[in-house]
Amino acid sequence: MKKIVSLVLALTLCLSLGVTAFAAEITVNSAQSATTTVTYGLDSSYTVVIPESVVIDSESYKGDTAVSASDVMLNYGETLNVTVTEIDVLVDAADAANTLTYKVGKTDGADDVTNGTVVLSVESGNVEGGEQALYFELTQDVTKAGNYSDTLTFTVSVD
Amino acid sequence: MKKFLSLCLAACMVLSLGVNAFAANVTETGTQTSDMTVRYGVSVKYTVIIPEDVNLNHGTFDADLSIRDALLPSNTKLDVSLSGDSYSNGTWHMTDRNDARNKLSYSIADAGTTLANGAVVLTMPAGDLSADKTLTFTLLDDVTRAGRYADSITFTVGLVDVTPGNDTSDDPTRPCEGCGKPITFDEQCGVCGCYCQDCCECA
After folding, report:
1. How many CB atoms lie within 10 A of CB B40?
2. Comparing C-alpha atoms, which of B6, B54, B5 is closest to residue B152?
3. How far is CA B177 from CA B90, B173, B197, in A?
């Protein structure tokens, strides 16, 4: 008898561990109605397009491209920011001492994009996102032939 | 039996501690970066202007050579050199078209320095956009016979690599017309200019 009781108590203890995970919560008030909670969860997501390269024309000394964001899903109060850094000088691939300076702007001829500039900003609620054109222009006379390049870094963050 | 039940109870107690941990939420944060390359390429270009005709009817003629709109690669220079088959015995020669035995000698000089076959007459380093040179042609012989005298000289444009360690522009060579071995300007005979010191038979 004692063994049977002990066995029953042990089984009961084992089964009671799952009660909280398995059982849904039901609230019954004095008017005999029940409340059910409806939820919907969505993680932040977005698509940002950064072109792999931009070419400055050898005759006009200008080039342009654009960065864009789309399908932007952010939590309330958040902002998607695209920041550019590592703007330096164009360096001749054959001679590191041979360089050309250039400027970057949000409009043709402007120089308002420098290291640390936020080139694109999309606020929560703007699902379509946006696009920002970038204009590149040489600011130095060319005196030597060659293939020059510089690499910019774009940082995408949700703030 | 008692031991078995005790073991079950202990196992259940251990497992119950982990239930809440498995149900916890996990959130990922961070930034992402992407690089973009800005490219600019410009090809080598230059324009060399060489006089088409030189007329020595007045005994002397100044001919202008020039380089314009030049974009040369870094660590290079543009050389314009002079050559011709008529050069011998230290002078150039025009030949009468009607009689090959009838010749007139003339000189080509740069600021008073006479130029021999193979001489570099104009040079311009990378970074410069233009250069100019005036060469003076001078008739050396008294004219004793009428005729139509002419000579053809060649100006050769060459891009020279002057990267430290690679520069050979100060030692341009040409084959000796006697034995064929490469000879520099300094090694060739100062009179005829076409032969090395060993092959030259100039007095």
Report:
1. 23
2. B54
3. 15, 12, 11
pLDDT in tens, chain A (159 residues): 777 777 777 676 656 554 444 444 554 555 678 888 888 877 889 999 999 999 999 999 999 999 999 999 999 999 999 999 999 999 999 999 999 999 999 999 999 999 999 999 999 999 999 999 999 999 999 999 999 999 999 999 999
Contacts across the A-B interface (CB distance below 8 Å)? 123
pTM above 0.80, yes or no: no
For tokens 């792999």, the residue is A52
Return d(Cα A49, Cα A133) in angstroms, integer.
Answer: 12
- Mapped onto helix, strand or coil, the DSSP state of residue A49 is strand
- Nearest 10 degrees: CA dihedral of A48, B39, A116, A106? -70
Q: For residues A50 and B36, is the Cβ–Cβ distance under 8 A?
A: yes
Tell me which chain B residues have a C-beta less than 8 angstroms from the C-beta of A44.
Answer: none
The strand pair at A102-105 and A62-73 is best described as unpaired
- Is ipTM > 0.90 here? no
- The answer, for A66 touching chain B at a CB cutoff of 8 Å, is no
Please answer yes or no on whether B31 and A10 come within 8 Å at the CB atom.
no
